[in-house]
Design a protein that fits this description.
It contains 13 helices and 15 strands. The chain is α/β, with parallel strands linked by helices. Helix 9 runs antiparallel to helix 10. The structure holds glyoxylic acid and manganese (II) ion (2 copies).
Length: 393
């Protein structure tokens, strides 16, 4: 079995025929199909599947309570709107295949090995990134998580109920966390560093600080033809200013900022909007600069923002990163601007690391995201090497 073949097994789940992109959002039908698939694949490889209080799935080779803590690998299966089939799934399939390889060769782990499928990593439905790992660690309170709403006003509590789950059960899960001695997430690279090198795999050093903020602009609905400019209160103008200013202010601070999600109500071609909302995603190498971004933006456009999430910069354990690089023949050690569950775990005291697999275009969060089959196999082999070493002690 290859990573490409396993990815093809889920290629039909949540794929939009119109765009070729994936829409795999937390606690939807697609999510449930992916969870079912994960369970089947893990059980077919002799792993025992459990779920934590949040709904993250854990497939164990060995008993983490009797012989733990274990070495855990894995990633997520959800997507951004119209995302690709690699961001998340490559880490899950590589984890399953690396474990399969270790079993095939007769490796006897000295401690249990787990494969994780984190729920709601992208935060595409409820707005907060890495919801599964944040609730698990207590970084996101259960009260706040359950009250988050999607674009249709459905709360996470309601979505959980509709998915047949008990919203009252979710919350921090120290027992599950205690089972993770080391976490290693493999991920498609979201950039072009490796594309220009001979190396198919890199090790992560750090993750940029990252914030998501929401700007609400109230306006006054009216007729697009009969209302004079001077009589209008058109909130789309504020939204336009936000989009332009976000780029300007971020550039001055040495950050990046994006308004990739916006809502205009009622969204009628011949109506002045009654309301507009823009979401700013801001990141950069310098945490102080990222923290200054939105106050400056608020001042520039004269409107206050609501913080939806803020993740400080994350440094992965440099000793572990150096060790993995050495195990992989001197793999490059690189930083990233993308967020990951491994970062949330690292920030909450779990020894964590990441492997990145070369992406020839560097594109991600798009149907164009890609990794060549040979590089995917190199990723599986690298992960097997890492697990073989970490689980032998
Ligand atoms: C997740 O991929 C993020 O970086 O937003
Ligand atoms: Mn992503
Ligand atoms: Mn991801």
């Amino acid at each position: 079995m290859t990573a490409q073949k396993l990815l093809e097994e889920i290629a039909g789940i949540g794929r939009s025929p119109a765009t070729g992109g994936y829409r795999r959002f937390a606690w939807t039908r697609e999510d449930s199909d992916l969870r079912e698939w994960f369970r089947g694949q893990a059980e077919a490889r002799g792993l025992t599947v459990t779920e934590d209080r949040v709904g993250n799935q854990w497939a164990w080779w060995g008993d983490p309570d009797a012989r733990g803590p274990g070495v855990v690998t894995g990633s997520h299966l959800d997507s951004v709107p119209d995302g690709g089939n690699f961001d998340g799934p490559l880490g899950v399939v590589s984890a399953l295949l690396a474990v399969e390889e270790l079993r095939r060769e007769g490796f006897t782990p000295a401690r249990p090995i787990g494969v994780a499928n984190f729920v709601d990593e992208e935060g595409a439905r409820f707005g907060v990134a890495c919801g599964g790992s944040r609730v698990l660690t207590g970084a996101l309170s259960r009260e706040r998580a359950l009250a988050l709403t999607d674009a249709d006003g459905v709360s996470m509590a309601e979505a959980l109920s509709r998915a047949g789950r008990d919203p009252g059960a979710i919350g921090p899960d120290p027992e599950t966390l205690a089972r993770i001695g080391t976490f290693v997430e493999l991920h498609v690279e979201q950039g072009r560093y490796l594309a220009d090198t001979a190396a198919p795999v890199a090790v992560a050093s750090s993750i940029w600080p990252h914030g998501r903020w929401r700007f609400d602009f109230p306006g006054e609905a009216n007729h697009a033809g009969t209302t004079r400019f001077e009589d209008r209160n058109d909130p789309a103008l504020k939204l336009a200013a936000l989009i332009l200013q976000a780029r300007e202010v971020a550039r001055e601070l040495g950050c990046v900022a994006t308004v990739g999600k916006m809502r205009v109500l009622p969204n009628g071609v011949n109506a002045i909007p009654s309301e507009a909302t823009g979401w700013v995603d801001g990141r950069g190498p310098d945490e102080d600069a990222v923290r200054r971004l939105v106050p400056l933006l608020e001042e520039a456009i004269g409107t206050g923002a609501v913080v939806e999430s803020f993740t400080p910069s994350t440094e992965f354990d440099p000793v572990l990163a150096g060790e993995l690089s050495g195990l992989l023949g001197g793999a490059p050690i690189i930083g990233t601007g993308a967020g990951h569950d491994a970062g949330v775990l690292a920030a909450n005291g779990v020894s964590s690391a990441m492997l990145f697999v070369r992406n020839p275009t560097g594109v991600s969060h798009s149907p164009a995201e890609h990794a060549e089959p040979d590089d995917c196999e190199a990723g599986v082999a690298a992960l097997a090497t890492v697990l073989r070493s970490l689980a032998a002690r």
